[in-house]
Amino acid sequence: MKKVLVLVAAVVLVSAVQAQKGSIKFGVKAGANFYKFSGDDADFGDVSPKIQVGIAGGGLVNIPVSDMFSVQPEILFSMEGAKYEESGDKLMYKTNYINIPVLFQYNNASGFYAETGPQIGFLMSAKADDGSNSTDVKDSFKGTNFSWALGLGYKTKSGFGFGARYNLGLGNIIDETDVDIKLGGFHVGVFYLFGGEKK
What we know:
Layout: H1 2-18, E1 25-38, E2 52-64, E3 69-86, E4 89-107, E5 112-129, E6 134-136, E7 144-155, E8 160-169, E9 182-194
Antiparallel strand pairs: 1-2, 1-9, 2-3, 3-4, 4-5, 5-6, 5-7, 7-8, 8-9
């Protein structure tokens, strides 16, 4: 984990040093998550996981490295998880993470952009909720979740924008070596950028 954090810090630092054709912008963002479990052991018998809806929000820094490319590290509070339903019974896994994606963006002059990059998530809490009782299950989960992000969006000249992103879970989130359960899903949201040069 330390190597990942060092690499992320190095990428951001190099990007900031190389930012010669634009100026750094800061931003805030918020949106909705549509997450669920996947992997060989994600099913409970014949019951497959369904989407758990949550919210996410936080801050970002957009660092241009050329007219068309930029690097965008973010820090986000993210409500994730999965839901199981059978014969009227429901069990929801509610996990909260602090996510730190580092995204490499291609920016088109029209305002549209595409992005991709790694994300590390730090688990804040995990609960199993059947609608009447909530149980703390954080000890059953790993403290970090690794994923890869792919997204598209649009930025206006005024600083407002919107985007959609898919986070592909890469590693097992359960703290057992013989269990394969990953966590990933879609995020859609809006953002506002400020600072930088006015065009």
